[in-house]
Design a protein that fits this description.
alpha+beta; twelve-stranded mixed beta sheet; 4 helices; 12 strands; about 20% helix
Amino acid sequence: MKKLLVAFLMITTGLQAQKTAGTIRYDYGQDWLKYIEKNKFMNNEQKQRALQTWKNDEVYKTGTQLTFNNEGSYYGTAADERGNSWQKTEYWVRRDFTGNKVLETQMIAGKVYIVEDSLYTFPWKIKSEIKEIAGHICMLATTYDSLRNYMVEAWFTTDIPLSIGPEEFMGLPGAILEVNINDGVVVLTATSVKLNENEVLPPLPKKVKGKRYSRKEYQTAVAKYIKDMEEARQMPWGLRY
């Protein structure tokens, strides 16, 4: 595996000069039917009712964007999609590479959590599969989210040699261009990659409302909410998947 990864890095580095600034546009899709079918808290009768409710609105789609340079990255809803969400607070993640910090907005059942902590990542396992996404050769990596109990697949490219990605995901030897969460419940796929050595990160929102929490405190709150929903045999709708 190590030899394969080295060969992959040499190939992709040779194909394109390394670039470390620009934007990546993603198509974000959440499949409500798969979400319901994979829920372990509901009984079959509850699942059938929920499936009937969502059968005409199977997949929620939107566009997101990752802006990045050597100093950090900013991920959130694409500018042309803002205001279309039912959420009152937009989801975004700001990573500071020089200060090793992350600032992000999260919500649990309508309550806003401003999570501020050191940069974090998941324990990735790099696989042998390779495919092309948005004109870039990508390699597969997998991890397991033990808090939410599902597998995550990520496809990354070393054409962009920064440890960046959408949502909570980073920590690979290149930019993540596709993420598949829990076998297709949520899929993010890069549709365009625009490299610009002069790219500047967008400013943070002027008003960031909400109490600040460490990542550990936020995860503790998530675990409690999931447990409460499990005991009530309800879907954890109040979490970003």
